[in-house]
Amino acid sequence: MSPLEKQSKTALLNPVLLLLISLAMILPILNIVAKSFSGAGALSSGSVLLWPSDWTLSNYATVLRQTAIWRAFGISALVTVAGTLIALVMTASLAYPLSRTEYRERKGILVLVLITMIFHAPLIPNYLLIRSLGMLDSLWALMLPGAISAFNLFVMRSFFQSIPNELIESARIDGAGELRILWTMILPLSKPAMATMSIIYSVALWNNYSNALYYINERALFPLQVKLREYVVTDSSDLANTAGDIANLSPEGLKMAVIVIATIPIMLVYPFLQKHFIKGMLIGSIKS
C-alpha cells in the first residue's frame, strides 16, 4: 500500500471515529433531555428516545418548587466560586516560586508534589485529617482539600516559565517585590492559564459529591450533586406527591429534570472560556 493510500484511509477513518465518539456522548444527553420534558404516560411506556413525547414542563416546575433544591444549588454555587478563587490563588502562589531558577529548593518541592500525583492518601487518613482540622460539617471541607492540584500546578508552572525573565528583572530593578510582580505582572499575562485552571477547578468542585458524603452530615449543607444522587439512586416519588399534577409526573422524569438543572451551569460557563481553555491546554506542547 502506497503512502498516499494510507493517508487517504486515515483521512477517512478519523472523521468516522470522531463521529462515533461524538454520538456516544451526545445521544445519552439527548435522551435525558427528552425524558425530562416527557409526561408520565410516555415514560412508563418506554416510547421516549431522543425526542420528548407528551410534552410537559411539570417535571421542571416540580423540581424548581423544592426549597431543598435551591438551597443545594446555592451551596454548590458558593463552593464552586469561592473554591475556584482559593484554588487559583494557592496554585499560583506555589507555581510562581517553583518556576524561578533562583529558588534553590524548587526541585525538592517538585518531587514532593510529583509523589502526590502517583500516591494518594487513603480515605481514613483524609477523614482523620479533616476532623482534626475542625472542618467536619463545614463548607471548608469541600473547598480546601483539593485547593492545589498537582497537574494544574505543573501546567501553571510551565506557563510562568514561558514568560520572559527580562520582564521580571526589570520589575525588580524598579523596586517591585515578588508579590507585586506576581499579582500585577505575571497573573495579568497568564489569562489563558488562569482560564484553563478556572474551568478545571470549577468543574471538579461543581461535580464533586464524594467529599460531601464523607465530611458533611448536616443535610442543610448538602450541595446539589448530593441531592442529585439522592433523587437518582433513591426513589423520587416524594417529589411527585408534593405536586398538583401527579398524573403527569413520574420519578424518572423528575430525575432527568434534576440532572439537566445540575448540568446547565457548567455548560453555560464553558463556551465563554473555550478559547482560553484550548490555548491553555497547549501550554508546554510546543518548544522553541
Automatic annotation (TrEMBL):
One Pfam family from the record: BPD_transp_1
Keyword Membrane among UniProt keywords: yes
Keyword Transmembrane set for record: yes
Gene Ontology cellular component list: plasma membrane
Keywords assigned: Cell membrane, Membrane, Transmembrane, Transmembrane helix, Transport
Residue ranges of every copy of the ABC transmembrane type-1 domain listed in the record: 73-273
Record localization: Cell membrane
Membrane topology qualifier: Multi-pass membrane protein
Primary localization: membrane
Regions crossing the membrane: 12-34, 68-96, 108-128, 140-160, 181-204, 254-273
Matches recorded under Gene3D superfamilies: MetI-like (1.10.3720.10)
SUPFAM superfamilies from the UniProt entry: MetI-like
Domain of life (superkingdom): Bacteria
GO biological process, one term: transmembrane transport
Protein family per UniProt: Belongs to the binding-protein-dependent transport system permease family.
Protein name: Carbohydrate ABC transporter permease
Source organism: Paenibacillus chitinolyticus
